[in-house]
Amino acid sequence: MSSYRNRAISRAAEKRAAGLDVLRDRMPVTVASIGGQQSLTLALDAEARGYANSAVAYRCVAAIADNGASVPLVVRRPDGEVIDGHPVAHLFNKRPNPLMSARAFKSLLLQQMELAGQSFVWLDRGETGLGPVSEMHLVFDQVDVIVDKPLAQRPTTADVIGFIIRRADGTQVPVLPEEMLWLRYPHPFDPLGCLAPWKAARHAVDMDAFAREWQRSSYANGARPTGVVYLGDMNETEFNQVKAAWRASMQGPENAGKNLLVRSQPGSSGAKGIGYERLTFTPEEMAYLESRMANGAEVMMAFGVPHDYLAAGTTYENRTAARYTLWSDTITGKLEVIGSEIDLRMLPLDSEEAQFDLSTVAALQEAQDSVANRTRASVYSDTLTIDEARAELGYDPLPGGIGQNTLTPYRAQWAPVQGTPAGDEARSWDVDWSRLAPSSPDVGAVVERAVESVLARLLGGPSPQVDARPTPRLARADDAPSSPSLAEINEAYDELERAGRRAVQSLAREQKERVLRDFDRLMKKPERSASWLTEVRTEACALAREQQLVLAPPDPEEVPAARLTDMDVASGPEGWEERIKLRDFFDGRYWRRRTGQVLRPFVERAWRRGGTSISGSFDLDEPDVAAALDARVEELAGQVTATTEQVLRSQVLAHGVAEGESVPELRARIQRVFASLSDYRATMIARTETVGGYNAASFLAALDAGATTKRWLATADQRTRETHRQENGRTAAMNKRFTLTKSRWPADPTAPAAQSINCRCALTFEFEES
């Protein structure tokens, strides 16, 4: 293939030899087919006429190029983490080549983009042309794009088989596609064309040049005085004297604004015919001034530079707003286009993505400050949790889940103990855990050990056992195991359910942000996105024709709560899922692991609450309990992730079958998946997992404490299932299931879904007498 490409480029070069003079004039040329290949020469027009002589155009290009060149390029992993020291980032930020700094390189690149709509960068990949990039060089000569397709068939970038750099001295340098980074502002009607902002500004620049030339000629031919004083009648001799006086003392720019004395005309007003007449701008002069302003405004509009950014005399507020507008509406979009092309051509792996880092741009900091102020106001009003506020500002959650509170209960963790007598016994560092909202996840073991160590040093005794956030326990006269009342259990259910709902909603927000970001990245890569969309439509239509798939919500009588959703899911023969690929924007293995991490604090809390309601010595670290807890978290994470993936695949499948749906419509389908997870599914998962986890732990604690039988307690209202109502008050051995509900305990994950989803029942236990 390489030799075939080189032969094609060689034939194109021979055919082009006679047209070098035209190419040097930088005019667009199209040649006929050369053995099946096409050579398409694109005009750079980098020496655009009038650019250097137009102050407005020059300042617009400089504003975009100089500001854009200040932004560093970063390479990130799929999770958004920056890869330090990446060679592509080093090329764009430190040393593109030994002869040019990175700042100058990016500035020149952006100038070419503004003036020509495109820029060619030669990538030095060694002798083979396929190795890693060691240097980058901007191409200042004419470049021919060689395509392997007749022009009548509208070739695209997929048909490019090489480039020819035509040096001014006549040298022709063939370049492989892998050796050329072709950056351009895409043309809406030409797949290989470009659309330069300079083209839109050319007419206004030319008109401004004509107006300036007219004014220059006007000054050269004589400036207009401020006024004329008439001194009466003049004969021919006197008239010639006046002309001579005009030319000698009044003509030329240096005499502008002076008054001229002449003999008065007959009928002049004033004593003895003396009068004064003011000379104003003519309509032509007024049109000149208006045209200069209009042409300047049009040039700034073409380049996307706000008027207040360049105009003198603007207020600080207007100039600040103009800087923000320049960055947000113009430079940011241009850098995203360039970064996306760099990502596509130089970073083909999905594990790496190039983008320009705008976090240090001072002009955009104004908007970030506004976001911070709004977030701060929401925090102080107890609207957002601490972790939600940190996420808004781009920070990671606080360790140990202590940030999953709003501000008031968050601060209460470090408030002085209320009611403590004054004096040495008062300890301001004590924590009044009773004031902490029960929905807060537990603090990690590191915090526990730190608190215990401090207490041991200050009190001079053995380290007390301090839970990071002790689970409220029922008061008992002794330490013997006992069962709480149904009212107390229901109160615990309500608190835990709220915490569980927040945990699932946090997962939904994170998944929505990450999945939509990865989807948008996929859509920004033209070749990959087109290939993926085509494959999805092909497979979806084939599956629809086979009529083997069914789209419908899952049956709540058949699937557990973690697998339940109110959206349609597809079911069909084994293996059909492999035909609709989601890996480009949803990694099931990663999200299964991440779901377990997000939901574990809530599940642990439900288990701890249930276990300590029976026995104060209940310990989640006990091997059997820890193993059961790990198994449940793993199972829950797998079920939640599998359902999300199943719904996403069904939405992509439905999009592929639907006719005429756009990419934004597919994006909206994906968003609905996470809206369901944040609402319907969050309630279902939190409610069922609360009851299931609480009772699983209480069962284990009672079993360890010597319980002999368990008793089913049903919540008696209209929502209670008939089987649960009939089971109320019945007992079963600890190693047996309840007959009617087929459950070991309420919301048992191994019971039929119809018996566990949304269950609100409870267990009490009878213990052996010691």
UniProtKB/TrEMBL annotation:
Chain positions covered by the region annotation Disordered: 460-486
A UniProt-annotated Pfam family: Phage_portal
InterPro entries: Phage/GTA_portal, Phage_head_morphogenesis_dom, Portal_HK97
Coiled coil location: none
Domain Phage head morphogenesis: from-to ranges: 652-763
NCBIfam families in UniProt: portal_HK97
Name of the protein in question: HK97 family phage portal protein
